[in-house]
C-alpha cells in the first residue's frame, strides 16, 4: 500500500506521519509537496498537522486552495481514504470535505498533552482495529480545536454515525466533545488528536497505531484478497 | 484603484471565546456597563476598479475571507482613488 503525506509550507507533523507509516506499518510512503498536481497514484492520503501558511486568516483556509488540494478533493470524492490530523482536519473542514468549522479553544489556551478518547464508531476503515467504546490515549496539540457545527449538522452526524472519536473530558469546548468525524461515505476522517504521535510505547502510547493498521487492513480486504 | 473594507464577524449564536475573555477583563477593570463583546476581523483590500467589482468582492468573501459556517461578512466599497 502506498501512502502520500501532503506537505504544505508550515506543516510540521509530516515526518511523524511518515514515521507512523514506515515504522508502524512497514508500508511505502512519499511526502508530496503542495505544488504537485496529482495524488492519483497513491492508495491513501494523509494531511499532517502543523501551521499551514502560518494559520493566517483562519487555520487551513489558505492551504485549502493549494494546487495539490484539487486532486486530494477529487480522490476523496472517488472514495479513497483521506486522513486529516489537527491542521489536516482544519484543512478538510475548510475544503468542505467534512462539515463544521474550528474555533479557538474555549479557554484560549494552546493544549499540548495526552488525552483520553473514546472510540464511538469502530465501523469505519480507520477504526476497525479498535473495540467500540474503547478508551485510548492519544496526544493533542492545538490552539484551535474547538469543533463547531449547528444543531442540524449535529443531528445529521449522529444519525449517520459520523462521530468517530470524542474526548472523555471537555478540553476545548467542542460540540458534544467531538474529537474526530468522518464524512457520510466514511472514507474521509478528520481528527484533532495525533495518532501518529502514539504509535509505539516509547512515545508514551501506542494506541494510535491501530488507526494506521485499520487503514491497511481495510485496504487489503478490498484489494489484495480479491486479486 | 478602489479601497474595499471587509468586516468578518462571528454569526449570531456562535460563542466567541476571545470576546468572552475581553468582556471578563473589562469587568475586572470595573467597566461593568459592558454587557458583551464581539470580536472580528478587518481586512482592507486595494482593488483595481472593474465593472463586476462588487460581485467579485462577494466571491472573495464567501470563498476565502470568511468561513460561512461560523462567520458573517459585510463590506464597503470606497470611492475610486488614483
UniProtKB/TrEMBL annotation, chain A:
It catalyses: L-glutamine + H2O = L-glutamate + NH4(+); N(2)-formyl-N(1)-(5-phospho-beta-D-ribosyl)glycinamide + L-glutamine + ATP + H2O = 2-formamido-N(1)-(5-O-phospho-beta-D-ribosyl)acetamidine + L-glutamate + ADP + phosphate + H(+). The lineage of its organism: Bacteria, Bacillati, Bacillota, Bacilli, Bacillales. It holds the Pfam family GATase_5. Its main location: cytoplasm. It comes from Alteribacillus bidgolensis. Coiled coil: none annotated. Part of the phosphoribosylformylglycinamidine synthase complex involved in the purines biosynthetic pathway. Catalyzes the ATP-dependent conversion of formylglycinamide ribonucleotide (FGAR) and glutamine to yield formylglycinamidine ribonucleotide (FGAM) and glutamate. The FGAM synthase complex is composed of three subunits. PurQ produces an ammonia molecule by converting glutamine to glutamate. PurL transfers the ammonia molecule to FGAR to form FGAM in an ATP-dependent manner. GO terms for cellular component: cytoplasm. Its EC number is 6.3.5.3, 3.5.1.2. NCBIfam families: FGAM_synth_I, PRK03619.1. PROSITE patterns: GATASE_TYPE_1 (PS51273). It is found in: Cytoplasm. One of its GO terms (biological process) is 'de novo' IMP biosynthetic process. It comes from the Bacteria. This is Phosphoribosylformylglycinamidine synthase subunit PurQ. GO terms for molecular function: ATP binding; glutaminase activity; phosphoribosylformylglycinamidine synthase activity. Keywords: ATP-binding, Cytoplasm, Glutamine amidotransferase, Hydrolase, Ligase, Nucleotide-binding, Purine biosynthesis. The active site is at 86 (nucleophile), 194, 196. Part of the FGAM synthase complex composed of 1 PurL, 1 PurQ and 2 PurS subunits. InterPro entries: Class_I_gatase-like (IPR029062), PRibForGlyAmidine_synth_PurQ (IPR010075).
Automatic annotation (TrEMBL), chain B:
Keywords: ATP-binding, Cytoplasm, Ligase, Nucleotide-binding, Purine biosynthesis. Part of the FGAM synthase complex composed of 1 PurL, 1 PurQ and 2 PurS subunits. Belongs to the PurS family. Pathway: Purine metabolism; IMP biosynthesis via de novo pathway; 5-amino-1-(5-phospho-D-ribosyl)imidazole from N(2)-formyl-N(1)-(5-phospho-D-ribosyl)glycinamide: step 1/2. Its main location: cytoplasm. GO terms for biological process: 'de novo' IMP biosynthetic process. Part of the phosphoribosylformylglycinamidine synthase complex involved in the purines biosynthetic pathway. Catalyzes the ATP-dependent conversion of formylglycinamide ribonucleotide (FGAR) and glutamine to yield formylglycinamidine ribonucleotide (FGAM) and glutamate. The FGAM synthase complex is composed of three subunits. PurQ produces an ammonia molecule by converting glutamine to glutamate. PurL transfers the ammonia molecule to FGAR to form FGAM in an ATP-dependent manner. InterPro entries: PurS (IPR003850), PurS-like_sf (IPR036604). The keyword Electron transport does not apply. One of its GO terms (cellular component) is cytoplasm. HAMAP family: PurS (MF_01926). It is an enzyme of class 6 (ligase). Its EC number is 6.3.5.3. It catalyses: N(2)-formyl-N(1)-(5-phospho-beta-D-ribosyl)glycinamide + L-glutamine + ATP + H2O = 2-formamido-N(1)-(5-O-phospho-beta-D-ribosyl)acetamidine + L-glutamate + ADP + phosphate + H(+). The lineage of its organism: Bacteria, Bacillati, Bacillota, Bacilli, Bacillales. One of its GO terms (molecular function) is ATP binding. The gene is purS. The keyword Cytoplasm applies. It is found in: Cytoplasm. Gene3D superfamilies: Phosphoribosylformylglycinamidine synthase subunit PurS (3.30.1280.10). This is Phosphoribosylformylglycinamidine synthase subunit PurS. It comes from the Bacteria. Pfam families: PurS (PF02700).
